[in-house]
C-alpha cells in the first residue's frame, strides 16, 4: 500500500491518507479483509506523526472503511461501496449546482461549462 503525501496540497495530511485509502478500496486495490499497516508503521514510512495517522484511521473507521481490533491490527471492512459512491455523487451534485448557478449568472454558456468540466475531470490530482 503506497501513500503519497504532498506538502503543497490544500488538504491536511490525515485527509490525504484517508482519501487515498478510500480510493484504493473503491478501485479494488484493497479488498475486504486486507490488512493495512499499523499506525506506527505507516507513520514511519511516510514520515508523519503517529497522531496524524491515528486521526486518518479514526475517520476511516467512522466511515466504515476499516475495522480495528486491539492486538490484531486494522483491516479493510466489508463496507458498502454503493453507499460511499452515492454520498460522493451527492457532494459532486452540490458543487455542480453551484457552478451552474454561477455560470448562468455570469453568462457562461453550457458548452463552455461542459468544456471546463471535461478539463477538470481529466486532470491528474
Q: How does the overall form come out from the CA principal axes?
A: elongated
Q: How many helices does DSSP assign?
A: 5
Largest sheet: 3 strands, antiparallel
Helical coverage, percent range:
55-70%
How much of the sequence is in beta strands?
5-15%
C-alpha-based Rg, rounded: 18 Å
Low-confidence stretches: none
Number of strands: 3
Derived structural class: mainly alpha
The secondary-structure element order is HEHHEEHH
Overall pLDDT, averaged?
90
Give the neighbour order of strands across the main sheet. Answer: 1-3-2
Can you give a write-up of this model?
The chain is mainly alpha-helical and 125 residues long. It has 5 helices and 3 strands. Helix 1 (13-27) packs across helix 3 (50-62) and helix 2 crosses helix 3. The two termini are 18 Å apart.
Keywords:
125 residues; mainly alpha; three-stranded antiparallel beta sheet; 3 strands
Blueprint (SSEs and pairs):
Layout: H1 13-27, E1 35-36, H2 39-46, H3 50-62, E2 66-69, E3 73-76, H4 81-106, H5 110-122
Antiparallel strand pairs: 1-3, 2-3
Outline:
With 125 residues, this protein is mostly helical.
